[in-house]
Amino acid sequence: MKTLAKKVGSFAALLILAGCQNSFLDVPPQGQQPSQQFWISADDAGKAVNAMYANLREWNNAAFAPIALESMASDDAEKGSSPSDATFFNTYDNFTVTSTDGQLGGFWSGQYQTINLANQVLANIPAITMDEALKSRYLAEAKFIRAYAYFRLVRAFGDVPLRLSLAKDASEYNIARSPKAEVWAAIEKDLSEAAGVLPQNYGSGDLGRVTKGAALSLHAKVAMYQKKWADVKSLTDQVMGMGYKLFPDYEQGFRVKNENNSESIFEIQCQRILGNAAASNSQYSQVQGVRGSVGGGWGFNIPTASLVAEFETDDPRKDATIIFRGETTPDGDIIPAAGDNPMYNQKSYVPFTTYISGYNEGADQNIRVIRYAEVLLMNAEANMELNNAAAALTSLNAVRARARGAKINILPNVTTTDQATLRKAIYHERRVELAMEFDRYFDVIRQGRGAEVFGSKGFKAGKNEVWPIPQNEIDLSGGVLTQNQGY
């Protein structure tokens, strides 16, 4: 049972509204606690923290906007669905998007809503009389969530407004973009402080909350984007000593019944809550599900032929990552042999038989954010860049060994100690291991290979390393926000 997902079901709107000062919004929402009576008890604190988690699966954080900004530009994914549906996705795929596209604003708003919720927790919980250990943990959870939102913002847009406290009055509402180095530093500070407080694990009632391992792992990823290889190695070494294990069956590791398994470091908790369709609101799986099948979905964000070709011969991860037209899935769903799209994302797949009319397809599917396999690959990359080939090969080959399982004649261990060759092998492994998990585009950018890999799609160096700042945000700021170069 996903206890945390049930707890966070329908509370997020309360704290978003609590930060509004306009009189026309001062209408007590039905069934919600007035903000004037909030921030008093430990129960209030728990509800506020749960609201942060709930917001992570909201539309702008988990559906169209992330697909556009975090997946569509890569060589792993293309629009899908029917040719005429949601054609704006094509502008991300071919790098012609302009600053007025709505998905930019949606993604921006989604992250800053998350940051607002975290800032409210950090500003208000310290004054509540409650168990001090639990209070410290709640504050650490908020720091992780804020860091995660800023991580998504800075890699998407570069310099962004850095809001680390609640605005005291109207004069503080409108702030300029901070240099990305300052944003990275703020993220690292939050994660360091969170890791010093968060537990390594929880009881069943709190399954899915962020842990010390999650904070260390995200910190390692943040350091990797800045090429701080010694830090990446140190942080991943710590996580590798914390008891995580690769789930033995790669394909089954993504199924609902195996969520929060031994490989899971952080997952966004999603659940269909019977009798409460509004709280069963994750559309992550729905928008990517098999189009034209009852219980499937809308068919967006489909794998490319380029991704198919990247898998080595007989790599089981190909069939575990991609649902092919005409196949029968391991869970027994027959995929039509004809249809709009030749393949779909299997990592977001939920068996059609679980569908209940009136609820989003796949509402139960958690969103995998950090897996132990990525920690091993970050460790391999750091060791490679630090000229420690033996340690790099150990971590890299552990990922390959899990993928091949008992099939000894496929996916042989990588043995090269030449740095350039090993670097290519690690880049390849990241692509096939983490395919369709919304990292490929940013991986290529941080590796400095944007023009090389995406040039044929329209990528222009010096421009497309970041997305345009939403024009609506610039307009609302009165010009305080500035646009990225080339847009």
The general outline is globular
CATH third-tier fold name of the domain at 1-77 and 89-197 and 459-487 = Serine Threonine Protein Phosphatase 5, Tetratricopeptide repeat
What is the radius of gyration? 22 Å
How much helical structure, as a percent, in the residues?
40-55%
CA(first)-CA(last) distance: 47 Å
Q: Uncertain segments of ≥5 residues (pLDDT<50)?
A: 10-31
CATH architecture heading of the domain at 1-77 and 89-197 and 459-487 = Alpha Horseshoe
CATH class call of the domain at 1-77 and 89-197 and 459-487? Mainly Alpha
Q: What's the β-strand tally? A: 6
Strand order of the largest sheet: 1-3
Residue share in β-strands: under 5%
How would a crystallographer describe the biggest sheet? 2 strands, antiparallel
The SSE order reads: HHHHHEHHHHHHEHEHHEEEHHHHHH
What would your notes on this structure say?
The structure is a single chain. The chain has 487 residues and is mainly alpha-helical. It has a domain at 1-77 and 89-197 and 459-487: Serine Threonine Protein Phosphatase 5, Tetratricopeptide repeat (Alpha Horseshoe). It contains 20 helices and six strands. A two-stranded antiparallel ribbon has the order 1-3. A two-stranded antiparallel sheet has the order 2-6. Helix 5 (64-71) packs across helix 7, helix 11 (229-240) packs antiparallel against helix 15 and helix 15 runs antiparallel to helix 17 (419-433). The longest helix is centred in the first third of the chain and has 26 residues, at 132-157. It is globular, with a radius of gyration of 22 Å. The N and C termini lie far apart (47 Å). Residues 10-31 have low confidence and may be disordered.
